[in-house]
Amino acid sequence: MDYIVICAVALFVSALTFFSGFGLGTMLMPAFALFFPVPIAVAATAVVHLANNIFKVVLIGRKANWPVVWRFALPATITAMIGAALLLLFEKLPIIAEYTIGNSSYEITAVKLTIGIIIVLFALFDLVPKLSTIAFDQKYLSLGGAASGFFGGLSGNQGALRSAFLIKAGLEKEAFVATGVVTAVIVDIARLLVYGFTFYSARFALIDSKIWSLVLAATLAAFTGAFIGRQLLKKITLRLLQVIIGGLLIMIGSGLALGIL
């Protein structure tokens, strides 16, 4: 059952994230957590997430708009390192609210509430007709990169903000996807350096040989999903891409703000 659930989530979400540029880690970690302790789930998800992003770079990285990549990724890299450095400080902030649904308890934190509200607001620019015609000036790319990088370093939730800015950057659909993927890899490397190898090695040490086989299966499923997404990308319009991203932004943003994700 664990192989079926985790691989199905990895395949389906990876196909969707090929368009949106975010969501695999957010959805896959809870799937791993159904069968393993959270530290192991975090480590396993990190392996699949990194491998999948590298695979997507191989598939479509050559389509990236490099001027946009550097204008977005450079400030994002700097602020991601700052956000990562501040992580321990922000984790000490008091919880805003707690609630229970059934047997599950949820916590609303200042960081996730802020990120969630910002993400939902950006989603409206893709879904509301009057707002969808508004385009962010290219001069705001660096600001968007800085915001995305900071929240990515602070909480790991950077993809939604990144996509919200890049979708308005005037890129063709393939260039949008490729630019987001390349930027994600650059920023991930920066924040992982700050988190430190000790933090991750302590968690990777918990993954035994049996779990590694499941991680490998999930990685292959994610590769398959990314490949399927690459083929479907040729058949969708930019407007459909905006609607898909807008809908996912609403889901992710609301989930974060409510403490569900």
Notable traits:
261 residues; mainly alpha; two-stranded antiparallel ribbon; 13 helices; 76% helix; globular
Can you walk through the features of this model?
With 261 residues, this protein is mainly alpha-helical. It has one domain. The chain has helices at 2-20, 24-33, 38-60, 66-85, 87-91, 110-127, 129-132, 141-155, 159-166, 173-195, 197-204, 209-233, 238-257; strands spanning 97-101, 104-108. A hairpin with a 2-residue loop joins strand 1 and strand 2. The two termini are 23 Å apart. The model has no long low-confidence stretch (mean pLDDT 77).
What structural class results from the helix and strand content?
mainly alpha
Bulk shape:
globular
Q: Which spans of ≥5 residues are poorly predicted at pLDDT below 50? A: none
Cα Rg: 18 Å
Strand content: under 5%
The residue-averaged pLDDT reads: 77
| Number of β-strand runs | 2
Number of domains: 1
Please, how many helices? 13
Main sheet properties: 2 strands, antiparallel
Strand order of the largest sheet: 1-2
- Helical content stands at over 70%
H and E string: HHHHHEEHHHHHHHH
Give the N-to-C terminal Cα separation.
23 Å
